[in-house]
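Hey, I'm writing a tutorial for new members on how sequence and structure tokens pair up, and I'd like a real worked example in the thread rather than a made-up one. If someone can provide the structure for the chain below, I'll link this post from the tutorial.
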Amino acid sequence: MIVAITGTSRGIGRALACHFAERGDRVFGCARGPVGIEHENYTHVVADLALSDGPKEFFRQIRRTEGRLDALINNAASALMNHFMLTPEDSIKQLFGLNLQAMLGCCREAVGLMSKTEYPAPSIVSFSSVAVCWSLPGQLVYAASKSAVEQATRSMSRELGAQNIRVNAIGLPPVRTALTRTVPHHKIEALIARQALPRQCEMTDIFGPVEFLLSTAARFVTGETIYLGGVH
């Protein structure tokens, strides 16, 4: 497959880029700066998706190199943990600009390339969060942006179904990353206690669901948000 992954500088995006490259897929990744991933199957594009031309810059490179695309993984996002009464308006705009507008921009650019693919199950996968279904205090703005991602997933699946492009999302519980390592241990433990599977999500737990949603085995799955860890 030819796979585009946003936000490959660290965390989930970097792990997914390395995983799919090692698997033998042709991977294009982007971030605001270099990432240091050295693999023959990986091509990096420096692009700031928060800027209006960011998605165009990223997919322009894919268009020049491959002329088509099989899958898009919308990973780039920002988090904001603050009481909504204390959240500056500019911070809200910036978060929605990356988490929603940039995601939609990438989907828009990807669809044109997916229309040229011969892969039988072209797919878009985005990430949501337990902040949506748990309505966590201090995460109103972040949860609202991810809720918008879920609604966009449902609506986009209807609009792109006639083109045989599937659109799904994965809802993530706390994942062991550099970001969660800064969160107090007792808070992480309290969140994990709400899951059906009482342990923290690892990177390898994400690979399988993403692989499935991108595969031909999921060619009749669209418009869904699949939550990991049994969080409902």
